Amino acid sequence: MLHFDSNDAVSIKESQTLLNEISMEPNLTLIHSNYGFLPSTITKLESQGVSLTDSVSTVMFTKNKSEEVAGDVEMKVNTKFNQVLEKNDRVCNNIKNLNGESSSMNGLPEDLMGNDVTFYKYAPVTSTDVERSFSRYKTILAVNWRSFDVENIKKTLVVQCNNLSDKPKFRD
After folding, report:
1. Distance between CA atoms of 38 and 31, rounded to whole angstroms?
2. What's the longest Cα–Cα distance across the chain?
3. How many CB atoms sit inside 10 A of residue 95's CB?
4. Is 171 exposed, middle or buried (0-12, 13-18, 19+ CB in 10 A)?
5. Is residue 52 scored above 80 in pLDDT?
6. CA–CA separation, 136 vs 28, rounded Å?
7. Closest CA to 17 of 39, 31, 1
8. Do residues 169 and 161 lie in contact, with contact meaning Cβ atoms separated by under 8 Å?
9. Nearest to residue 86, comparing CAs of 103, 67, 107?
10. pLDDT in tens, 2-45
11. 118: which residues sit within 8 A by CB, 6+ positions away?
């Protein structure tokens, strides 16, 4: 980055300025040594077919690991992490019910029935699965598909459904 001409683009100039800061190397070392596990953790949370219990265990592992780090910035990270978890306490209540750790429905939405909790067993904790499904539908329902006839829509849906699994579900 330092070999590029800073007059070519503002982003090059700003990057060079940041890289020349004295605190850059220690900050990057701190991030890598204390939070280097996050990319693999995020990938694990984005995986499909992982039970909610396993996903929350991964989140709690991340919470415990981040609490081991001391410092001003790290305290801010931990505070934000805890605030996000507190806003999503229903997930923890659902897990307790799924694992048999709770014998009451307290803390769950009133319109949620007992057998509805079982549908949460493989609920994603990230929006990745939701984004994937919207992306599939967006492709099919895009404006440029106006001339799509019913037969081609059927074939496209078959292809999309077959891509969801290793084994073909439908045959044309």
Report:
1. 10
2. 66
3. 20
4. exposed
5. no
6. 37
7. 1
8. yes
9. 107
10. 678 888 888 888 888 888 888 888 888 888 888 888 888 888 88
11. 98
